[in-house]
Amino acid sequence: ANDPRCAEVLDELPRYLLKDSVVAVGEVGYDSMTAEEERAFEAQLALARENDLPVLVHTPHRDKAAGTRRTLHVVRDAGIPPERVLIDHLNELTVGMVADSGCWMGFSIYPDTKMDPDRMVAVLKEYGTDRMLVNSAADWGRSDPLKTREVADAMLAAGFREDDVDQVLWLNPVAFYGQSGRLDLEPEPQAGPDHAGNTIKRG
To answer: Per DSSP, which regions of the chain are E strands?
Structure first.
């Protein structure tokens, strides 16, 4: 959003939102809290509303509390019901305001930054498991996609039930993204080669 050369991408997004496999709009939201980011954020929220899709929102890395407050304000102004909004990258300073808003609460678990499994368990003890989602990453920094498994182990070690783990790591994501009406949990039947021996599906 902060690079004017990329502004035209917004005009292309509606085509992609029509695809059957798209279950949400996002990740959208702030990084540096610029006016350009806010314009893009508002446009993407409008696309989510117009396409009747849930929306996944990123909160900024710096000044996270102020950024989360501003995020919630923009989401309210967009007219999207809070139960169709997931605010991600939360921490102990921001989870309370999102819990009070009615939005879903997301936490990214990393080896060195953001949340770790023990901190996540402490948040779950305080706020419960409703509307809570936990995710990991395999992205630009040091990350570990298996951090979700570590959260599960830490939850069990802290006295949570297997049903609680299942809710946070499976049932809640299914409930949130299932609001799209497009989340297909049925496995695809095994098929033979499609084109010139290539089994990669297109579409």
So the answer is: 25-29, 55-58, 85-87, 104-108, 132-135
Q: Are 201 and 192 in contact (CB under 8 A)?
A: no
Task: Please give the structure tokens belonging to residue 46.
Answer: 């409008």
Q: Could you tell me the residue ranges of all domains in the chain?
A: 4-178
* Sheet of 104-108, strands arranged across: 25-29, 55-58, 85-87, 104-108, 132-135
At 37-82, the pLDDT tens digits run 999 999 999 999 999 999 999 998 888 999 999 999 999 999 999 9
Sort strands 132-135 and 85-87 into parallel, antiparallel or unpaired.
unpaired
DSSP character at residue 114 = B
Question: What are 53's two structure tokens?
Answer: 């899709």
In terms of CATH, what superfamily is 4-178?
A: Metal-dependent hydrolases (3.20.20.140)
pLDDT by residue (tens digit) across 137-148?
887 678 888 999
71 and 38 in contact (C-beta within 8 Å)?
no
pTM tops 0.85, yes or no: yes
DSSP for 124-165? HHHH-STTEEEE---SSSS--TTHHHHHHHHHHHTT--HHHH
